[in-house]
Design a protein that fits this description.
The structure holds three protein chains of three kinds. By secondary structure, chain A is α/β, with parallel strands linked by helices. Helix content of chain A is about 30%, strand content about 25%. Chain A has a six-stranded mixed β-sheet, with helices on both faces. In chain A, strands 1, 2, 3 and 5 form a four-stranded antiparallel β-sheet that branches. Chain A has a two-stranded antiparallel sheet with strand order 11-12. Chain C has a single domain, classed as ABC transporter involved in vitamin B12 uptake, BtuC. Classes of the chains: A alpha/beta, B mainly alpha, C mainly alpha.
Chain lengths: ~260, ~280, ~280
């Protein structure tokens, strides 16, 4: 049982990373260090470079300068060991496959030509589906799943890899409450097992509830560190550029949570 | 055994089935990937390859021609991608610009330089399945129509590729990015598919011509997609439907005294209509 | 071979200019509305209509065959639309299916006609790849009328068509009946395709609708400019191709015209000013 803490080597790190998108930098001079074992989030306004950061860390984009390190090495070498959970919109869900088939795709790496996934692979896929609460939908055509269910299928696909690190791109966006609860529960349980989680997160309000580490990004890195200490008024104002209102949450009187009002 | 290959009707039907089946096999993968028009583009583009190969080497058949066809097929796709990526032309216009240009160039070259060779614009477009039995080659002690033999070989090649790389095909069709991250090389898989499509198109040209090849590639796959819940199901059903259409097409065409290839291709409408009717009926219940 | 004032050549030239102008100009909307593929479908599916028109009319008359082409071309479009909307077939695949089936039907009908006694059907096969020399004086009248009607209609309703093409949601909000304009533009695309079939043939006609518009887009700064520039480009390419093909027996017109148009489009893409957009997603 591994205790999450700063003594674990960073699984995700960037060094003065600058990435261009033709009309100016999407990311500029970002030096990020995500400690091992955290449940981390990347937040920032729309178009701020959050997805760009994730893609750079996976080696899917070439930086103009600087570099990214994944699991301590070049992303191209290590990315197959990462459980990547992309945005739902990245695929066309009108595809002839059931949920179990998609999850089994997470295991395709180990198979050579002419080798097919067998019973063992299908069982592991089933287990992953059970873990995310989708066991009863294993044979459902993916086009007929709800958004939250599709997101859970993607998570299950990452689960079967048993990766050291999970990278998720807005996993809770547009997702129903039951799916959100299931996804968070699974990620927490993985963290308990010593895994590291880094998610681009869309919502500041739930940030404190779910994540214990945060990076604030708006083209540059505004702040990074434990959520409790990093989410200050100044950091939020700097990142979101608008007025930030500190308000008490009605369901937890006495606890002050931040709500940002972006302009 | 030789008697089988001397029976003209049998040979024609067999050739048709082989052409239809290989077209449908690759076509079903492309249709599921959302790349149906690639079959149209590539099968037109190979004509340029045939013409250029003939111009450069004088070859009208054989591995050289297939190689030239494969190169032309790849060229078609690469040019289209490049044009679309330039931002100056939308993807559909890029497609509609590149493959007709290559096809036109091929036809012009053939018209100017290949007048007295059997490879001409008309054959390329429509094929002449009724005449495939005229050109025979020795094979394992038998006299076998060359076109049929080549198609059989190509079908085996297509089937082998698809089976060998099935899971990569499925994964890269559904989520190419994820496949790339997992080291499944979706780019290589796509390239292989492309090359095979070009080679298959050339092999089938003698029999059914370019556009009918497209009909065999797309229509059965669309029908199968309406019914199947897995990519494998689509492939199996598409090949079966295409083969059935080819088998039924020959006697029907003979009875009506019309184009054999055309009838075979037209009959693919039957499985499509049946699948559509079944689907609509299910939606209502 | 003298080409100057031979009346046949003049006829061919005039016909080519008229249809190149019409197809090229109308192609502007096809390209902007991303209907290049639809044009290809209508073109291939026109074959059964051409043959059908001949069968119904009993003789090879252009109006009958073009009318038939229009009917089957639009029927194919309707088939693709039905597959896409009612059966949720992906648009590309639906169009490909319609194209394949339409052309197969055409091939079957063509072969049926060719086996009938009588020499009248001999000219039908020229509809595959086109034949400039087949243009008759009487055809010119048809072409002129169609060109005038189509280009005239577009000119009259240019503002509405422009809006419906650029921003249909806004147009609807402003009370325009976008569905009507959509239908009209699709119908015009069918005409643009069908009008050139005799010259360019069913297999390649769609390229004559697409290439001039693509070339014009590289230089035009307004829709109106693109419209007329595409028309002029289409006319020039059709004229050049027709004359070259008429002078070379054994060289079908369609491939030459399309080759010319493609080269022109290619040059325009190379030479045209940068429009500074980011790469296509």
């Amino acid at each position: 049982m591994v205790t999450p803490g700063a003594d674990l080597a960073p699984l995700v790190a960037t060094d003065r990373l600058t990435v261009d998108y033709g009309e100016g930098p999407a990311l500029r001079d970002v030096t990020l260090t995500v400690p091992g074992g955290v449940m981390g989030a990347v937040v920032g306004p729309n178009g701020a470079g959050k997805s760009t950061l994730l893609k750079s860390v996976l080696g899917l984009l070439t930086p103009r300068s600087g570099r990214a390190l994944l699991l301590g090495d070049s992303p191209h070498r290590t990315r197959h060991r990462v459980g990547y959970v992309p945005q739902r919109s990245s695929v066309d869900w009108d595809f002839p496959a059931d949920a179990q088939t998609v999850v089994t795709m997470g295991l395709y790496r180990g198979l050579g030509p002419f080798r097919r996934p067998g019973r063992r692979e299908r069982e592991r896929a089933m287990q992953a589906l059970e873990t995310v609460g989708m066991g009863h939908l294993a044979k459902r055509q993916i086009g007929r799943l709800s958004g939250g269910q599709q997101q859970r299928v993607f998570l299950a696909r990452a689960l079967v890899q048993d990766p050291e690190l999970y990278l998720l791109d807005e996993p809770l966006a547009g997702v129903d409450a039951a799916s959100e609860a299931a996804i968070i529960a699974v990620l927490r349980s993985e963290r308990e097992r010593g895994k590291t989680v880094l998610a681009v997160h869309h919502d500041l309000v739930s940030l404190g509830d779910y994540f214990d580490w945060v990076a604030l990004v708006n083209v540059t890195l505004r702040a990074q560190g434990p959520t409790a200490t990093t989410l200050s008024e100044e950091a939020l104002a700097d990142t979101y550029g608008g007025r930030v209102v500190l308000a008490a949450r009605p369901d937890r009187p006495g606890v002050r949570e931040e709500a940002a009002v972006a302009t | 055994m030789q008697a089988l290959f001397d029976d003209v009707g049998l040979v024609i039907a067999l050739t048709g089935v082989l052409a239809a089946a290989s077209a449908a096999l690759l076509g079903s993968v492309l249709v599921v990937r959302g790349q149906a028009m690639l079959t149209d583009a590539v099968s037109h583009g190979v004509v340029f390859g045939i013409a250029a190969t003939y111009l450069l080497t004088g070859a009208v058949s054989g591995p050289v021609q297939l190689l030239g066809a494969a190169a032309a097929g790849v060229l078609t796709v690469v040019l289209t991608q490049w044009l679309a990526a330039s931002g100056r032309v939308r993807r559909d216009a890029a497609t509609g610009l590149v493959f007709p240009a290559l096809f036109a160039a091929g036809v012009v070259i053939l018209s100017l330089f290949a007048r007295d060779v059997h490879v001409d614009a008309h054959t390329v477009l429509l094929g002449e399945i009724g005449f495939v039995w005229l050109d025979q080659v020795p094979f394992l002690g038998l006299e076998v129509p060359r076109s049929t033999l080549v198609l059989a070989g190509v079908l085996l090649l297509d089937a082998a590729y698809v089976l060998a790389f099935w899971d990569r095909l499925v994964a890269s069709s559904f989520d190419p990015l994820h496949a790339k991250l997992r080291g499944l090389r979706p780019g290589g898989v796509s390239l292989g598919l492309l090359v095979l499509m070009a080679v298959t198109a050339v092999a089938a040209l003698d029999a059914v011509g370019v556009v009918l090849f497209v009909a065999f590639a797309i229509v059965p796959a669309v029908a199968a997609r309406l019914l199947a819940g897995s990519m494998g199901g689509v492939a199996v059903m598409a090949v079966a439907a295409a083969s059935a259409a080819a088998v039924a097409g020959y006697p029907l065409a003979v009875a009506l005294d019309v184009s054999i290839g055309g009838t075979m291709a037209l009959l693919t409408a039957v499985p499509l209509a049946a699948a559509a009717a079944w689907r609509l009926a299910r939606a209502r219940s | 071979m003298p080409l100057e004032l031979d009346p046949t050549v003049v006829t061919v030239a005039a016909g080519a200019v008229l249809l190149g102008l019409t197809s090229g100009a109308l192609g502007t909307f096809a390209v902007l509305r991303r209907q290049s593929l639809l044009g290809d479908v209508m073109s291939h599916a026109a074959l059964p209509g051409v043959v059908g028109g001949y069968l119904v009319a009993g003789t090879r008359t252009l109006p009958a065959m073009l009318a038939g082409a229009l009917v089957t071309g639009l029927a194919a479009a309707a088939l693709a639309w039905t597959l896409h909307r009612r059966l949720r077939v992906k648009s590309e695949a639906a169009l490909g299916a319609a194209l394949g089936l339409g052309f197969a039907l055409g091939v079957v009908l063509l072969s049926y006609v060719q086996r009938q006694p009588g020499a009248g059907s001999a000219g039908l096969e020229t509809f595959l790849f086109g034949q400039a020399a087949a243009t008759l004086r009487s055809d010119l009248v048809v072409l002129m009328v169609v060109a005038a009607l189509c280009l005239g209609a577009v000119t009259i309703f240019f503002g509405e068509l422009e809006l419906a093409t650029f921003d249909p949601t806004y147009a609807r909000a402003r009370g325009h009946s976008v569905e009507l304009y959509d239908a009209a533009l699709t119908g015009l695309l069918a005409v643009a395709v069908v009008i050139g079939l005799q010259l360019v043939g069913v297999v390649l006609m769609s390229a004559l609708v697409v290439a001039p518009a693509v070339a014009a887009r590289q230089f035009a700064r307004s829709l109106r400019g693109m419209f007329w520039l595409a028309g002029g480009t289409g006319a020039a390419c059709a004229l050049t191709g027709a004359l070259v093909s008429a002078a070379s027996p054994g060289l079908a017109t369609g491939p030459v015209v399309v080759l010319v148009a493609s080269v022109v489009a290619g040059l325009a893409l190379l030479v045209g000013p940068e429009r500074g957009r980011s790469a296509e997603a």
